[in-house]
């Protein structure tokens, strides 16, 4: 089975609007989560790729062993103390931090299920872009033309198909421009 990807550049339509709204939701969640992390003396967090819930806290130091346990590679409050239960409730009440791929749902693409399966591997659609500039790129895995017809995906009319090198070049240009702007802001 030969897999290739089809790439699309989007700057208008339903998916960029959904991606922008999701990005704004993520930024609001990030601010609220960061405020709690600062209060706890934590350095970072982990979230679920499925539903966006916070599922782990990172510390730059060893936290209080009576309050925190290590679960799945990060810290989570122990539930055998009142303080741990209170912290657990606060963490579960935090807003969700959903992955950007959730925006693909507006195009009928599931973020939680592969578009192609085979040879013990899974291939998912991906979404990347620059929220500040409203430019988004979608990669859709497909079977190569010589392969059997597999998952069929018909993109919406406003999607513009581009080549991989065009995506990479535009991302490099955006990153270079952002670096120049950051360097100018610090000067």
Give a short summary of the structure.
With 187 residues, the protein is of the alpha+beta class. The chain is 33% helix and 26% strand.
The gross shape turns out to be globular
Number of strands: 10
Give the oligomer, counting copies of the same chain as homo and different chains as hetero. Answer: single chain
Structural class: alpha+beta
Report low-confidence residues grouped into runs of 5 or more: none
Radius of gyration: 20 Å
* Series of H and E elements: EHEEEEHEEEEEH
Counting structural domains, the number is 2
> How does the major sheet shape up?
4 strands, antiparallel
Structure, explained:
The structure is a single chain. The chain is an alpha+beta fold and 187 residues long. The chain folds into two domains: 3-14 and 101-186, no CATH class; 22-92, no CATH class. The protein has three helices and ten strands; from the N terminus they run βαββββαβββββα. The strands form four sheets. The protein has a four-stranded antiparallel beta sheet, sandwiched between helices. Strands 2-3 form a two-stranded antiparallel ribbon. A hairpin with a 4-residue loop joins strand 8 (126-130) and strand 9. The longest helix has 27 residues, at 14-40. It is globular.
List the helices and strands and how they pair.
Layout: E1 3-10, H1 14-40, E2 44-47, E3 54-58, E4 68-71, E5 74-77, H2 82-92, E6 116-118, E7 121-123, E8 126-130, E9 135-143, E10 160-162, H3 164-186
Antiparallel strand pairs: 1-9, 1-10, 2-3, 4-5, 6-7, 8-9
